[in-house]
Amino acid sequence: MASKGAKAATTSTVRLLVPAGKASPSPPVGPALGQRGVKTMDFCKQFNDRTKQYTQGIPMRVILTVKPDRSFSFITKTPPTSWMLLQALGQEKGSSRPSHTSIGELTIKHVYEIAAIKLTDPGCEDTTHEAMCSRVLSQAKGMGITIVRGEEVTA
After folding, report:
1. Of 12, 4, 44, 5, which Cα lies nearest the Cα of 28?
2. Rounded to whole angstroms, how far apart are CA atoms 131 and 151?
């Protein structure tokens, strides 16, 4: 059985979804970091500085690594694919019955643009554009969004 000292020597990873420029010690950030002994105000200041070039309120994915001495480092990723698809469509949420009800149509160009943005994420260096487009298409299908080939979307 591992000793208590060996257990404390490991790093932990926290995944959060935080609005750009609006990080605060309130939930979900405060409780998630407080459990690991991280100073939430330090994270909030650094996160808000790093995301100040984005429109406030865009949900940003954050992967935060907490070291044994309670110091931390984090990387920010692009917003979730589902959020980008809904923004391109102008909807608030996806279909409750995606295989039966469509909430709207997007063109292949939209899928291509979203895939290009997603390819800038850390960890996607080995992903091809075609594979990322396939992921975006699958996400759209699961949300009840119809993808059309033409340049114009029918109303």
Report:
1. 44
2. 22
